[in-house]
């Protein structure tokens, strides 16, 4: 089992013919993901060879879905055009939309998230590495060679920490690893992923990676306490971050004690989550749990 993405997923790429789109479409094809086409209104009707596969380019997401049966779109679209690309995918009712783009204006994302309400599309991102179900499918930029299949579910705000955790636990493997993105507003939250992993019979334990700023981790802690029966191990990036300083992600701003790594660690521990001080310590905590399952 997996969450949101599996071997049957048919993926299109919005912005497939651009530099980043072409590069990562090639890597997704090489990973074994079923890429069925791309979208670029200016190049509709042409084909592009990427990763040894001849891929058709369509004018719209709706057309691409009709012609290929696609149920996932990955968007590699410049920040200025990301909102419109999202609206187009949502209007076409694509089940899963993965937005990789970094630097999307927060107001644009807020509009998109509001537009999603009551609709059938799930959005992951923006500013995220996407989602990987090892040995089945990849929608995004996570290196597919890091880890294989196994019983761990991973949800993370950080792309690089997603990769590190997958590498650290590669001997156990993952059902699905999902990078939700580090912006202040994102489509899929820690809580959404926790709920999906809780309901997935093959996920036996969950790693949750957060970071300073905002209150997403505190809200996730409250959710875990009330709804999650599986063991959860956590890590919060930013224990050494100076107060009031923006760190990396747009969402990582600390004010007073609100949003600090310590406050998040305490909230998670109060919910029964074991929290590591470093990614490696977090992996060791999960390793211990898995060996005793």
TrEMBL record:
The active-site annotation reads 249
**Pathway in which the depicted protein is active:** Carbohydrate metabolism; tricarboxylic acid cycle; succinate from succinyl-CoA (ligase route): step 1/1
Q: Name one Pfam family in it.
A: CoA_binding
What Enzyme Commission number(s) does the record list for this chain? 6.2.1.5
- For the keyword Thylakoid, the answer is no
Q: Which HAMAP family match?
A: Succ_CoA_alpha
Question: What binding partners and quaternary form does the record give?
Answer: Heterotetramer of two alpha and two beta subunits.
- Which purpose does this protein serve, as stated in its record? Succinyl-CoA synthetase functions in the citric acid cycle (TCA), coupling the hydrolysis of succinyl-CoA to the synthesis of either ATP or GTP and thus represents the only step of substrate-level phosphorylation in the TCA. The alpha subunit of the enzyme binds the substrates coenzyme A and phosphate, while succinate binding and nucleotide specificity is provided by the beta subunit.
The name of this protein is Succinate--CoA ligase [ADP-forming] subunit alpha
Native species: Nocardioides furvisabuli
User: Which classification does the entry list for the species?
Assistant: Bacteria, Bacillati, Actinomycetota, Actinomycetes, Propionibacteriales
Q: Which gene encodes it?
A: sucD
């Amino acid at each position: 089992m997996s969450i949101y993405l599996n071997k049957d997923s048919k993926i299109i790429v919005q912005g497939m013919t651009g530099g980043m789109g072409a590069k990562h479409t090639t890597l997704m094809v090489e990973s074994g993901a079923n890429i069925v086409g791309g979208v670029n209104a200016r190049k509709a009707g042409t084909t592009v060879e990427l990763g040894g596969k001849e891929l058709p380019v369509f004018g719209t997401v709706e057309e691409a879905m009709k012609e290929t049966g696609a149920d996932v779109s990955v968007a590699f679209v410049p920040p200025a055009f990301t909102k419109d690309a999202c609206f187009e995918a949502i209007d076409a009712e694509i089940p899963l939309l993965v937005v990789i783009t970094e630097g999307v204006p927060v107001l644009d994302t807020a509009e998109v998230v509001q537009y999603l309400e009551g609709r059938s599309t799930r959005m992951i991102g923006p500013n995220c590495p996407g989602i990987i179900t090892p040995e089945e499918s990849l929608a995004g930029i996570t290196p597919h060679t890091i880890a294989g299949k196994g019983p761990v579910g991973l949800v993370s705000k950080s792309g690089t920490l997603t990769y590190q955790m997958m590498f650290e636990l590669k001997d156990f493997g993952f059902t699905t690893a999902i990078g939700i993105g580090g912006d202040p507003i994102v489509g899929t939250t820690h809580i959404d992923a926790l709920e999906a992993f809780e309901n997935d019979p093959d996920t036996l334990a969950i790693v949750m990676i957060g970071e300073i700023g905002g209150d997403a981790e505190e809200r996730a802690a409250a959710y875990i306490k009330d709804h999650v029966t599986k063991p959860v191990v956590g890590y919060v990036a930013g224990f050494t971050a100076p107060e009031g300083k923006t760190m990396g992600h747009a969402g990582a701003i600390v004010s007073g004690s609100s949003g600090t790594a310590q406050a998040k660690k305490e909230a998670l521990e109060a919910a029964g989550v074991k929290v590591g001080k470093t990614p490696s310590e977090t992996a060791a905590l999960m390793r211990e749990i898995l060996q005793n399952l």
